[in-house]
Amino acid sequence: MSIAATNEAVAAPEAGSLQRKISWTGAFWIASGVPALVLFSIGAIGATVGAPAWFVWILSIIFGFIQAFSYAEIAGLFPHKSGGASVYGAIAWVRYGKLLAPFSVWCNWLAWSPVLSIGSGLAAGYVLSILFAPDAAINTWQLTLVDLGWLKAGLALRINATFVLGAVLLLIAFAIQHRGISQTAKVQVILGVVALLPLILIGLVPLFTGDVLAAHLGPFAPLAKDEAGRVIAGEWNMAGLTLMAGGLFIAAWSTYGFETAVCYTREFRDPKKDTFKAILYSGLLCIFVFTIVPISFQGVLGLGQLVTPAVVDASGTVTTPAVYDGILSADIYSGMGVASAMAGMLKGGPLVHNIIVVMLILALMLAIITSMAGSSRTLYQASVDGWLPKYLSHVNENGAPTRAMWTDLGFNLILLMMSDYVFILAISNVCYILFNFLNLNSAWMHRIDRPAWDRPFKAPIWLIGMGTVLAYVNLFLLGMGADIWGAGTLVTGLIVSAAIIPVFLFRHYVTDKGQFPAAMMEDMHLKAEPGAGTRAGMLPYLALVLGAVVIIVARSIAVY
Question: What does the UniProt keyword field contain (predicted)?
Fold first, then answer.
């Protein structure tokens, strides 16, 4: 698209489209829900990796911050578009293969959308924990609909109190979103101040009171178990490195998430200035939270002490795993006990404990609204661009993509019924890593194919290079560490990501008769520079082949 045409689109949005009503501060507050994602997997990572878990979070947020500069650059190329980084990166890939563009956007949506179900499920669990005893009837009743044990042991679709209350919380988030981006940003400011406060307190107070014990942060060795099932310090052999890869893999789902700040480029008053500021300051906030909270959480709780020894049969096989307290306890791994454990870190008595839990529930609501705002706009823009069904391109009178939001809601009500949220997160993250790989590579592809385009923010070439290297590091972590979270996680994630193929083929060849919408054709740069749009030649294809090789090699050397 020509620069003049882009400026016209920025200045005069069409009726019935997304509206330019926020500045970078609005996007910052909407993205301020990302730090709450630490609640989703802090327990699972600690219980899986062991003592080095705090370092996993720090290294992962550094990776995410470096990658963000590539996303800031490509977002600035398309100030008239919404939907986030995947949409901007997909335009680089679309002329090298029609399926690559929708695949990237689909993977991004599948990564972000489950925040709704996992977040509402955890929030519902927190509510039930402060209102009822663990053995109360409301916490124990369950109606199993479908047994999914063939996919993962113990997995099922069920209806229980967590599902019912979680669905109510999702509807509340939907009602807030329905009023448009401007009103959503205002609500997020209020929620952001209230919800980020407990995370900051949980991170800082134990450091000042001396409750963070250095002994709990070491020894710097991966978790292992002896023959009796007792937890011991492991070794940095291939099994230990596989655990570390699994931790970095799952942490990426949370730490990379502040890239959602560029989802709202189409709704910025001044996209040239606002896009970079939004992602920069969102990234700095995340560096702070994802560093101090894991250190304090692990430093106070420790891995835990043995409560009940493992039960071993006559042949020496562990039939019932050992039970621990601390980070290794089952409710910390699932996430349901994280809020209570964090509240206990502040030592304020029952009243303060409940107040902190309520504030953490608001933090999860913040994350849910952040996800719904970003993922629904990804669906909307993918529909406008001709990749997903046409009905998703509708917006209401407030400029909210309501049909995309309803689709998000319905999808997540199904996920909310699943009995294992950590497994959902792991499957979702397979898709997220694939999206990140395509998107980070799109930065250098845009540089080659669109050298003359205006770049409001142009990242130093070394940062683009580091982003490209991290694209392959992420794939290595995917191949090596995904199945730590359940046998078949990697394969299931790949199958789910491939589900876009029939969806796109129907939209493109049946609905659109093999032609992209006119606006998308211009974005592909076919009109502005005929014949000059694929300067990268074979390099994108070589990048894909190398990526596949990295995953295969990483999977082959993993030891579980």
Answer: Cell membrane, Membrane, Transmembrane, Transmembrane helix
Query: Distance (Å, rounded) from C-alpha 346 to C-alpha 201?
Result: 8
Place of tokens 């910390």: 332
* Residue reference for tokens 């560096």: 287
The string over 390-408, giving b where at least 16 C-beta atoms fall within 10 Å of a residue's C-beta and e elsewhere, is eebbebeebbbbbbbbebb
Q: What is the DSSP letter of 230?
A: -
pLDDT in tens, 60-74: 999 999 998 898 888
Q: How far apart are CA 427 and CA 62, in angstroms?
A: 23
pLDDT at 553 > cutoff 70: yes
Measured distance CA(292)–CA(17) in Å, rounded: 41
* pLDDT digits 0-9 by tens, 194-206: 778 888 999 999 9
How far apart are the C-alpha atoms of 409 and 412, rounded to whole Å? 5
CB contact at 8 A, 380 and 83: yes
pLDDT tens per residue across span 471-508: 999 999 999 999 999 888 999 999 999 999 999 999 98
Helix (H), strand (E) counts: the chain = 22, 8
Distance CA 265, CA 355 (A): 36
Residue whose C-alpha is closest to residue 259's, from 48, 104, 79, 64: 64
Q: Is 374:184 a contact under the CB 8 Å cutoff?
A: no
Buried (b) or exposed (e) across 137-150, using 16+ Cβ within 10 A? eebeeeeeeeebee
Amino acid code (one letter) for 169:
L
Tokens of 396: 């209401």
Sign for the pseudo-dihedral over CA of 154, 155, 159, 165:
positive
| Residues 191 and 362: beta-carbon distance below 8 Å | yes
- Give mean pLDDT, residues 537-559: 96
The amino acid sitting at 131 is L
* The dihedral formed by the CA atoms of 64, 65, 67 and 72, expressed in degrees to the nearest 10: 130
By C-alpha distance, which of 28, 143, 183, 123 is closest to 357?
Answer: 123
> Structure tokens of 505?
């083929």
Residue showing tokens 């062991």: 50
H or E element: which one contains 54?
helix 53-76
Model pLDDT for residues 332-369, shown as the tens digit of each residue: 888 888 888 898 898 878 888 888 888 888 888 878 88
Asked if 361 and 339 touch (Cβ cutoff 8 Å), the reply is yes
How many Å apart are CA 521 and CA 308, to the nearest integer? 64
CA angle 415, 485, 435 (to 5 degrees): 70
Query: Which element (helix H / strand E) includes 223?
Result: strand 223-225
pTM above 0.85, yes or no: yes
For residue 143, the surrounding DSSP H or E stretch is strand 142-147
